[in-house]
Amino acid sequence: MQAAKPLFDYPKYWAECFGPAPFLPMSREEMDQLGWDSCDIIIVTGDAYVDHPSFGMAIIGRLLEAQGFRVGVIAQPDWRSKDNFMKLGEPNLFFGVAAGNMDSMINRYTADKKIRSDDAYTPGGLAGKRPDRASLVYSQRCKEAWSHVPVVLGGIEASLRRIAHYDYWQDKVRRSILMDATADILLYGNAERAVVEIAQRLAFGESIDSITDVRGTAFVRRDTPQGWFEIDSTRIDRPGKIDKIINPYVNTQDTAACAIEQEKDPVEDPQEAKVVQLLPSPRLTRDKTVIRLPSFEKVRNDPVLYAHANRVLHLETNPGNARALVQKHGDLDIWLNPPPIPMSTEEMDYVFGMPYARVPHPVYGKEKIPAYEMIRFSVNIMRGCFGGCTFCSITEHEGRIIQNRSHDSILREIEEMRDKVPGFTGVVSDLGGPTANMYRIACKSPEIEKHCRKPSCVWPGICENLNTDHSSLIELYRKARALPGVKKILIASGLRYDLAVESPEYVKELVTHHVGGYLKIAPEHTEDGPLSKMMKPGIGSYDRFKQMFEKYSKEAGKEQYLIPYFIAAHPGTTDEDMMNLALWLKRNGFRADQVQAFYPSPMATATAMYHSGKNPLRKVTYKSDGVKIVKSDQQRRLHKAFLRYHDPKNWPLLREALERMGRADLIGSGKHQLIPAYQPQVDGYQSARRKNSTPAGSKKVGKILTQHNGLPPRASDGGKPWDKREQAKAAAFAKLQEQKKAGKGGGKKKPRPVAPR
């Protein structure tokens, strides 16, 4: 892997003399207070501005500030005109545009394409503060405000739309966002290296059009530059050479009458010397090799070619061996340079060690920002994920090589959070990242890692070259627990349990000290069909982890539960698969209130399966095996209903499906049957954990309270839905208990109400 210039080795821009700002300014008044006459860079974002390293605009803004640039922020602007984009004046270098921490379409719409009622990245959780495809809209408004100012596009929304991509909401293939956004350059993946390089070069007077050699960038060009070797990957099932058919009426012995004989080259003299031209091997000039993908027009009209292009893109994601990619859009090419070089531990410490205020900008007053409230007391210890789950965007965006912070850097952040963040009670809500237990796990050999092209290090099994040592993470947990003022360290990030079972010591440490009653893990399914399309381990790994979890919980004298997450309607899932999953859930006593249906996000491998019906995990041809796809609303509802087999509202749909599948034997009240034959008269399903549920028929006020996904029912009620009679019993029982506590008992003895089941 080629060396990269460290982030802290660049010369500082002249504006370094102003020093760091308490908050990056969001108004001209704040700029005046800082003594600025203008901003060098203005970041436009779809999220509220929270000066915390879990928010992209804060990381990029503080990093550029550390390089000596004056950085302003325009957060959640009114996109209906250019006026809001001009409030900080004209930036001297460029606009940096991002939709926010989430894709704006996923942020606004559910998997069923219904508009969400809230936005976690907006003060008060209000919806509607950002437009659909926010990156595209913001870029256009920036160009409308200052047409000559470069626009640098970044963030996860742009990253996942850098080439022609399937758009779930329009059910069609859209062209690269660069073609519609009028931006000058796009940064994909972890953008720290690219944004610093571009800012420095623009500050030295280079034009944005001339910056074409920065890794992790995409831009528009008209042709392949001289000196590059182009590999044509625009077609599949290309036939070999076919010999011309000889006319049967031609005398082949008569060379004057045989056209084929005439086309033959003259016989060469073996004694004659020939000059042989040796062409360089593309393997030896990988940094000057570009792969041409099928054009936008072709992938738009041919789903199989779309799947092929998706496969090629995912094979070129290892920074150690990835080649550039190019895709034609009409008369122009979208050029993608290889992915960025991962940051070193020293660089990660540098980025996370910036002077973050760790709170929202004061302009929001006392309004709460839900996303901030969730991560306020959490610490990110690493980046990246080598799991490669096909439905997930983390690997595509952050890469599969884990980028780690040092112990000292993490401990300093915990101490800073303890001392600076209001409301800290001594509980760190999370010490993790995309996957909690991938910290300092990597390939045993840098040379093997450099050449590897596997999409996952843990599927179909854990790679023999992967070091699964959890000792550094265990040591970190122990150091963090020992800090003064820290009472508890919780692990709230998702856990890769197939890795965890490789280290029983880690599981014991985790279960004994860092589980707050419940631990989230994601088996996603129980059946091999969908699991193989997800690149997830079999349910046997979950069973092994569950045994260890329960064993160490018992040894610690704690009652703790696993919270398994499952996906409905994923490519490769049949009705029978969902039925078997429902039976597994019932056998294991799980009743999920929150159900996740597959959400086709741009550029994900599973999305290519959903659109094409082909499997890009293998070579794609027109004759290759297809993938079972769940697309109709009716079938998606059925798959979600299997996950909520316990909800009486789903029983009619499930009965019809089970009869159609020839499994009417699962209808009845027996222990091994899935749903009963009768339909109760109830107003609506009420979860087992009643205090966390909105009663049926009540008016919706604020947020809907739901049972946490997968919690086992309380022993007192057996998990059965209440009817009105039982609700009356519960009310009477609760009233009696209150009277006893208040000392109002006595007098004539009244009949004792029966406690609810």
UniProtKB/TrEMBL annotation:
<protein>
    <recommendedName>
        <fullName>Radical SAM core domain-containing protein</fullName>
    </recommendedName>
</protein>
<dbReference type="Pfam" id="PF04055">
    <property type="entry name" value="Radical_SAM"/>
</dbReference>
<dbReference type="InterPro" id="IPR013704">
    <property type="entry name" value="UPF0313_N"/>
</dbReference>
<dbReference type="GO" id="GO:0003824">
    <property type="term" value="F:catalytic activity"/>
</dbReference>
<keyword id="KW-0411">Iron-sulfur</keyword>
<keyword id="KW-0004">4Fe-4S</keyword>
<dbReference type="InterPro" id="IPR022946">
    <property type="entry name" value="UPF0313"/>
</dbReference>
<feature type="binding site">
    <location>
        <position position="389"/>
    </location>
    <ligand>
        <name>[4Fe-4S] cluster</name>
    </ligand>
</feature>
<dbReference type="InterPro" id="IPR006638">
    <property type="entry name" value="Elp3/MiaA/NifB-like_rSAM"/>
</dbReference>
<feature type="region of interest" description="Disordered">
    <location>
        <begin position="684"/>
        <end position="757"/>
    </location>
</feature>
<feature type="domain" description="Radical SAM core">
    <location>
        <begin position="371"/>
        <end position="640"/>
    </location>
</feature>
<feature type="binding site">
    <location>
        <position position="385"/>
    </location>
    <ligand>
        <name>[4Fe-4S] cluster</name>
    </ligand>
</feature>
<dbReference type="InterPro" id="IPR024560">
    <property type="entry name" value="UPF0313_C"/>
</dbReference>
<comment type="similarity">
    <text>Belongs to the UPF0313 family.</text>
</comment>
<dbReference type="Pfam" id="PF08497">
    <property type="entry name" value="Radical_SAM_N"/>
</dbReference>
<dbReference type="InterPro" id="IPR007197">
    <property type="entry name" value="rSAM"/>
</dbReference>
<keyword id="KW-0408">Iron</keyword>
<dbReference type="InterPro" id="IPR020612">
    <property type="entry name" value="Methylthiotransferase_CS"/>
</dbReference>
<dbReference type="GO" id="GO:0051539">
    <property type="term" value="F:4 iron, 4 sulfur cluster binding"/>
</dbReference>
<dbReference type="GO" id="GO:0005506">
    <property type="term" value="F:iron ion binding"/>
</dbReference>
<keyword id="KW-0479">Metal-binding</keyword>
<dbReference type="InterPro" id="IPR058240">
    <property type="entry name" value="rSAM_sf"/>
</dbReference>
<feature type="binding site">
    <location>
        <position position="392"/>
    </location>
    <ligand>
        <name>[4Fe-4S] cluster</name>
    </ligand>
</feature>
<dbReference type="Pfam" id="PF11842">
    <property type="entry name" value="DUF3362"/>
</dbReference>
<feature type="compositionally biased region" description="Basic residues">
    <location>
        <begin position="742"/>
        <end position="757"/>
    </location>
</feature>
<dbReference type="InterPro" id="IPR023404">
    <property type="entry name" value="rSAM_horseshoe"/>
</dbReference>
<keyword id="KW-0949">S-adenosyl-L-methionine</keyword>
